[in-house]
Give the backbone structure.
Amino acid sequence: MLAWKSLPGDRHESRSTAACARHHIRGVTVIDKAITTMLLTIAGVIAAVAVMNAVYPAVTRSSSAVASASDTVDKRIRTNITVVQSVGELDSSSSWVDTNSNSLFDFYIWSKNVGNIRIPAISEVDVFFGQPGGIERIPHEDDAGGSYPQWSYTLEGGATEWGIASTVKFDIKFDDGCPGSCLKATGTYFIRVITPNGVAAESYFSM
């Protein structure tokens, strides 16, 4: 029986084929790694974008809320008022004097802006008034529905807004028995004025 012997050329060809196979395998492995790396990179980018889309609006809202709160606090700190004068329509003999001929009993309260910022929306100011034990919130005339007491205001000195150093004259109107026996009790009265952002000034006066 004859044994087959590989010729030198055959061995060389076999080695070349094996080398090609190994090279091919290494090439496929490199490509697989490159594809895997590329897919992981894409997945990472997508995940980062998804996280950013979820987090960014919340961060934006939070930043806006902080800025708004800071602005509110800043305005409140810069707001300040004081009550500079208070009088009622009683003369020295405690008789009613209708100083503005409106057939109502009026109390006049002057309040000055002593802060360093304009005070908007004067009609939204809260006014509390009365004698101790009978203090009540007085509505602005727009909210009183035609009933009394109510208050209105005018800006003093030709001012067009309650700006820095400007004074507002509050007119608190009562119709207690007016005009026939329009009387208010003498004694001590309390006034408290509160701006729309919560800054208050108060005073007592006697009539």
